[in-house]
Specification:
The complex is a heterodimer of chains A (242) and B (318).
Chain A (H helix, E strand, L loop, with lengths): L1 H27 L3 H17 L10 H31 L6 H21 L5 H33 L5 H26 L4 H10 L9 H33 L1
Helix pairs in contact in A: 1-2, 1-8, 2-3, 3-4, 3-5, 5-6, 6-8
Chain B lengths: L7 E8 L5 H10 L4 E6 L4 E7 L2 E9 L2 E4 H14 L3 E6 L2 H12 L1 E8 L5 H10 L4 E6 L4 E7 L2 E7 L10 H8 L4 E6 L3 H4 L4 H4 L2 H50 L1 H14 L8 H15 L5 H18 L3
Antiparallel strand pairs in B: 1-6, 2-3, 2-6, 3-4, 4-5, 7-11, 8-9, 8-11, 9-10
Helix pairs in contact in B: 2-8, 8-9, 8-11, 9-10, 10-11
The chains are: A mainly alpha (242), B alpha+beta (318).
Chain lengths: 242, 318
């Protein structure tokens, strides 16, 4: 089961690589608002990348990956908020460089924060991962609402269908991250299982194996569909805006 | 309008608008001019008779309306200010001037008498006996002749198609012999009596000219202002139409946000009037382009901006 999970994880990373590459390429030739959104999606790839890295067991680096994941959804949300403001006021401000440098700055500061503190234990890593998932779930819902409002404003423009696609993306992301958060909240996730086993703590995994299996399935399918839909959305957007 | 003998032409076809009437009349007065001034305007004509520098009569004819004296002078000033007319000045003898004066201002002794029904010889005898000063007009529907008299003696003849006084009566006799020929007899005072009357003494030409000039200047200013206002209104309406069309173009390419975008960017450069300035148009289009990038494809964006550019360049300054 774990092997299949790892394989699916690696396939997800490959999909995110494609989606991240596509979104980063998209950000280069387009307006600043798209920069935030596409850089955010590109960061998802970086946040998943640790699964492929040979130094995956290096906990500080793993913590940085989780933080990058959190920054990813925040940057994306910032982009959608900017687009929403634009759709209401037609005001566009700031520069693309500020987005790149700002994002890089936040990641660097977070990394410094991780490196000046004691090396994270599995329990700490799990906490950071939980924070990341909670951010994703909450901001995915916020973004779906923002996208709905943006769509209402620009429904008769060329780009409007692209936002419908983003709505679908965030729905898959909600399932992907939400299912993982659900498992974490009830201590049914793999990290907790290892921690509990090592420390002789009893868990309820056996008791709720069906819903845990279902949640894991939703997490894996949601993750793949998220990556696929992000890649597809950016290709679609690229064609719309060409 | 008035077909009169030309005598000795002093000036012909002078544009009336160039004339300073008070100065001209003063010159004629000081030069003891005898003759007449014939003004021709697009819809009226005026005749001023002078005897030895005295303006003995003024007549202004507009269609079927005739004005004399002060009214004629006031009307003449108006017509000169309005422009478009011309002036001819002819020097004549005192007697002929008197005859022409009779023709235009004289008392009508006989009107439209059929020649064949009256005793022409008897009439001429009567003219002679009464020492008539004036003029006989013999005419048919398409021909006419004038015979001028002084103290009952003929001074000369004037016929259609001629410009000067003739001494031969043959043409007048021919017309009198035509079927349906009629005769008018007009009398006037003698030349010396006419000279008792001088319009230049009675009418303050300087004041009349000055007030007409002032009124015309005010009217011209008003017309200019009206013209400018009309121009501003027309330009505003043209720009309003252009703004509406730009919104339509933006709406077709960007949806309803296109209209708002055009409104916002136009507001940013100072309103629709700024579409007449090249720099503002560049700023406006750059603003539209920047925002429209977030709403449509690059190919459509280029098409939209090109359409807007061509609309502005063909209509904003037209």
């Amino acid at each position: 089961m774990d092997d299949i999970g790892n394989l699916i994880g690696i396939i997800q990373v490959v999909f995110w690589l494609l989606a991240g590459g596509m979104s980063f390429y998209f950000s280069i030739g387009n307006a600043r608002v798209w920069t935030s959104i596409s850089v955010g999606f590109f960061l998802i790839f970086l946040s998943q990348f640790y699964l492929l890295a040979p130094w995956a067991d290096y906990t500080r680096l793993e913590a940085v990956h989780y933080i990058i994941g959190t920054v990813a959804i925040m940057v994306m949300t910032h982009g959608f908020q900017e687009y929403y403001v634009f759709s209401r006021t037609l005001d566009i401000g700031g520069s693309k460089a500020a987005v790149y440098l700002g994002t890089l700055g936040v990641i660097c500061v977070s990394s410094v924060f991780i490196f000046i503190n004691p090396e994270p234990t599995y329990s700490v890593l799990r906490n950071i991962k939980m924070i990341e998932n909670a951010s994703w779930v909450f901001l995915a819902v916020i973004n779906i609402d923002l996208i709905r409002k943006i769509y209402a404003q620009i429904r008769d423009s060329v780009i409007s269908k692209g936002f419908v696609a983003f709505g679908i993306v965030f729905f898959f992301i909600f399932l992907w991250k939400g299912s993982e958060l659900y498992l974490q909240v009830f201590c049914w996730d793999n990290d907790w299982h290892i921690f509990a086993t090592n420390n002789g703590i009893a868990d309820t995994v056996e008791l709720y194996s069906d819903r845990i299996a279902f949640s894991v399935l939703v997490n894996q399918i949601g993750g793949m569909l998220s990556a696929l839909s992000v890649g597809g959305t950016f290709i679609y957007l690229y064609r719309l805006l060409r | 309008m008035f077909l009169l003998p030309k005598g000795n032409p002093l000036y012909e076809n002078i544009p009336a608008a160039k004339i300073k009437l008070p100065e001209m009349l003063e010159k004629l007065k000081s030069g003891n001019f005898t003759g007449y001034l014939n003004f021709t305007f697009p819809s009226s004509a005026a005749i001023l008779f002078f005897e030895s520098g005295k303006l003995i009569s003024a007549l202004l004819e507009r269609g079927t309306t005739r004005q004399t004296g002060f009214e004629a002078m006031a009307g003449l000033c108006n017509n000169i200010m309005a422009g478009g007319g011309s002036l001819n000045v002819y020097r004549l003898s005192k007697d002929l001037t008197m005859g022409l004066h009779a023709l235009l201002h004289g008392e009508m002794l006989y009107r439209g008498q059929e020649v064949k029904l009256i005793d022409i010889k008897g009439l001429l005898e009567k003219v002679k006996a009464k020492r008539l000063n004036g003029c006989l007009r013999i005419y048919t529907e398409d021909r006419s002749a004038l015979i001028f008299y002084k103290d009952g003696a003929p001074l000369g003849f004037f016929h259609d198609g001629t410009q000067d006084i003739d001494t031969s009566a043959s043409e007048s006799q021919k017309i009198a012999g035509l079927p349906g020929a009629k005769i008018d007899v007009l009398s006037t005072q003698s030349a010396d009596e006419l000279m008792d009357y001088d319009l230049l003494e009675m009418v303050n030409i300087d004041k009349l000219w000055g007030s007409t000039e002032t009124r015309y200047a005010a009217e011209m200013n008003q017309m200019k202002r009206d013209g400018q206002e009309r121009e501003v209104k027309e330009r505003d309406s043209r720009l309003k139409e252009l703004e509406e069309d730009l919104k339509e173009v933006a709406s077709a390419y960007l949806g309803k946000m296109g209209r708002t975008l055009v409104e916002k960017e136009l507001g940013g450069v100072g309103g629709r009037e700024s579409l007449q300035k090249e720099e503002s148009v560049i700023t406006f289009l750059a603003g539209v382009e920047k925002s429209a990038k977030l709403l449509t494809s690059l190919s459509k964006l280029k098409e939209m901006v090109d359409t807007m550019k061509s609309e502005i360049s063909s209509r904003a300054k037209a």
